[in-house]
Amino acid sequence: MSCRRDIQQIDILFAPAFDPRMQFTIDMDKSTLRECLLRTYYYQQEYIDSSYYREHRRDTLVVLYDKTYNINPSDLSRFLREIHQIQLDSSTAQGESVLDGAGFKFSLIGVNCDTLTMITWSPRRNEKYKKEYQVLDAFFKLSQYTIDAKEGFSILGRAKNHFDYDSLQLLKISDAPIEYYMWGRAEGCLENYPELSGFIRNLPDNIPILLDVGDAGCPRCIIKSFADQKNVYIYGSSLLSIKKEIIEQLEKQHIKQDSIEKILPKELSKVFETKDEILHIIK
């Protein structure tokens, strides 16, 4: 399977230890990417009386999410070149023994139904797993260019967070008002992420911007960078619990609400519980 015409389909399956599986399928003929979130079992309740019931596990496939996206031809061509350069010439299987990890299975399916498979569990980004991360890097780059739905990005982010990645991704999900969805994981502050820093600098001035960080591992210092530089309103942040605790303490001291708003650190004053709360403020 040395070129595009030799490949009929590409599958990649992510199998976290305690989460639903995530399966992605690239159809070469249709130039599409199908994304599925799968659970391999469900629990059925058997009521003994009106108050008590037993739960029985049923091992069957449950599809929680299923959406297909069109792939830009140039993005698909670049992805295939990157996969070809890795030189996957035989099936492999290797990994690390950990309790709470995640594996992935990458399959190249040929037009004659021959299959080349890479199976890996809990790989670290080092020389031993160089090819595995070359595959992951190529796949995540293609998917980020292709997937255009918030829930789809969330699922992709959950897959990516199980491996050695340190980055935050943004997807614009609304123009009126302007709203971005953030996912991924970051360590350290804005100076470690020049692309994110440039993104913040280029945001429009004096226009309310909503930022959903519910699926992002986002340090407080990065939230502060958004709040300090732009008219950004944030929801989904774990900082909300800190904000509530501070407000509760100040209210016990009989401090008035308008004074509380002035006392709160700016990054906390821009954090809200829901999107609706923000929309009510910016009307």
Tell me the fraction of residues in β-strands, as a range.
Answer: 25-35%
Number of helices: 9
Radius of gyration: 23 Å
Uncertain stretches = none
Query: Strand sequence of the main sheet, in spatial order?
Result: 6-3-2-1-8-9-7
- Kindly report how far apart the N and C termini lie: 57 Å
Mean pLDDT: 88
Q: Mind describing the biggest β-sheet?
A: 7 strands, mixed
What class would the helix/strand composition place it in?
alpha/beta
Shape descriptor: globular
- Helical content, roughly? 25-40%
Total beta strands: 14
Helix-strand sequence: EEEEEEHEEEHHEEHEHEHHHEH
Please supply descriptive tags for the structure shown above.
single chain, 283 residues, alpha/beta, 7-stranded mixed β-sheet, 5-stranded mixed β-sheet, 9 helices, 14 strands
